[in-house]
Amino acid sequence: MSPASEALAGPVESVVAPGRQSRVGRARVRSEHALIRGAMAGSEEDLEQLFHRFWPRAYRIAFLIAHDHAAAEDIAQEAFVQAIRRLDRFDRRRRFAPWLGAIVANRAIDWTRARAARRESEQELPEPVAPPDAPTGRYSEEVMAALATLTPEHRAVIVLRFVLEYTPGEIAGALDLPRGTVNSRLRRGLDALKEHLTEEEER
Amino acid sequence: MRRRHDATVRRALAGVRAPDESGAQDRAWAMVRAAYADRPAPAPARARRRIILAPIAAVLIGAIAFSPAGAAVKRAINRALSPPPQHISRAAALSLPAPGKLLLSNAQGTWVVSSRGSVKRLGAWTEANWSPRGKYLAVASPGALAAINPRGALAWRLSERGVSDPRWYTPSGYRVAYRSGTDLREVTGSGLGDHLLVTGVAAIAPAWRPGHDFQLAYATRRGAVVVRQGDTGVTVWRSGPHPGRPLALSWSPTGTQLVLVTSAGAWLYRPDQAPPLHLRLPVRGPVLDATASPDGRWLALVRGATAPGHPGGATAPQLQIADLTAPARPARTVLSGIQVSQPTWAPDSRWLLVTWSAADQWWFVRASGRARIIAESRVAAKLGPGGRAGPLRLDGWCCPQ
């Protein structure tokens, strides 16, 4: 499995709900390509394994970029649905993880931009909506606060680089950006994050 | 130094876990499975064409990609050759995939959601219904029927017990029919002349007949359908009884065709035809909910699960769409395995909204054209204060403009 695939795919045991544990747990670990082949041939079991392997990170990517868990759920869910609907067109020489990750990241950027635009244009918008559930995990609050200081475009580059382990070239392809822009966003984003995380660690 | 900082960021990001990952995963899997079951068939012709074109495209891409000016073209070609799935950006916390405004209510109030995503609470009403052009709403509470404008300002109010299912006459809006317990009553659009029309009606919304002055169809508690002139009380037409519990009654946009759905099946009538057309649609129970599309072409049906001993065999819960222009054709299944409810059509009749109450999700299903499903999760939370007070009821999706 490639680094990006490993990064997007969480450990199977950690992402399977109790009700499904036995079914997925019994299944032998199959390659991403075998699962895609099986899903394309109509195997719901292969699809389920593919889903459980790639869903958690897709949701996390959306959450890290959009900073709204309800939106992240929608974004990751829709990305998966669209991916499944187009499985027959998927080029199996490519890796599934970067393909899905790019869809999720682009959706999350679009959603965040649209939310910002709406806040500017609509006066009577009721401030909303989903209560801000606290993310869990070490560093989570600090990381989220640090990420919040970045634009969604910078967040996406950072998340793709350090969560999905994309190379700058792969990020450029996924986000349709020139390589130089990716590098400068990475640098600027990292500088801002480091500053914030260092401050937090020093407290 | 830089590597140490990069490692810090990497570790920090790796430690983040989004809220309720397992719950979100369960909900998403249900939807992905449904989308998989309903995915379009592969297109072999396109695949063959792509193989033939691949060498030519490779030469062209190679030729232009190595020039500086070709970089943008290269990206564009890459995008065109391997397009990511088309996506819909969510412009808001709650957004609609089609134009119009959606009304919804629960025990704590009524809200209107616009297609751009704004959410506005209209007051402490428990039920609502759009006027034909969306300029007013008939709203109900346990002790009153009222008319308000879309900003929530009161136009008129009647004190009445047990009010439910208010319906405006289409297209003029000059009458409002509503149920009060088992009575069917009528009032003018300006809140005057409230009077009893008939007693002993079934617990479903009456249906005004478009293009026929103030003719109103309703179901009796015995399962018969009656069409009555609302102002004079004269009976225009009456059907025999139907098996099952009445669920929905609707007219085609011209008022020529009437559809009744009960828990046991669906029937189509053309009362003016001589002799009147009476057709049982190929729909078998148990039907839990149903709604006809505004253009009169489609009938959305929610079917419950059946056990192995059922005459039709064991089936999962299903959302089906029947084509009323081809009534003999069996309904097609668009979702299976999930117990959805409250099918509600977009004004353009292209999108169907259903609720999955157990997961607090809405699913938008495209009923025509390329199959598509969009989910909206944590709906109650997105409504703000009062949104979580009991089950949400979809009261109508109105008016493209």
So what's the CATH class of chain B? Answer: Mainly Beta
Uncertain spans of chain A, ≥5 residues at pLDDT below 50? Answer: 1-7, 9-27, 121-133
Kindly report how far apart the N and C termini of chain A lie: 39 Å
Q: CATH architecture of chain B, please? A: 7 Propeller
**Low confidence ranges of chain B:** 45-92
Largest sheet of chain A: none
**How many individual domains of chain B?**
1
Rg over alpha carbons of chain A? 18 Å
Q: Please tell me how large the radius of gyration of chain B is.
A: 26 Å
Number of strands of chain A: 0
Counted beta strands of chain B: 28
Question: Which chains share the greatest interface?
Answer: A-B, 83 and 68 residues
* Spatial shape of chain B: globular
Number of helices of chain B: 5
Order of helices and strands of chain A: HHHHHHHHHHH
Task: Look at the structure and give the mean pLDDT of chain B.
Answer: 83
Please name the CATH topology of chain B.
Answer: Methylamine Dehydrogenase, Chain H
Provide a short characterization of the protein structure:
The complex is a heterodimer of chains A (203) and B (401). With 203 residues, chain A is mostly helical. Chain A contains eleven helices and no strands.
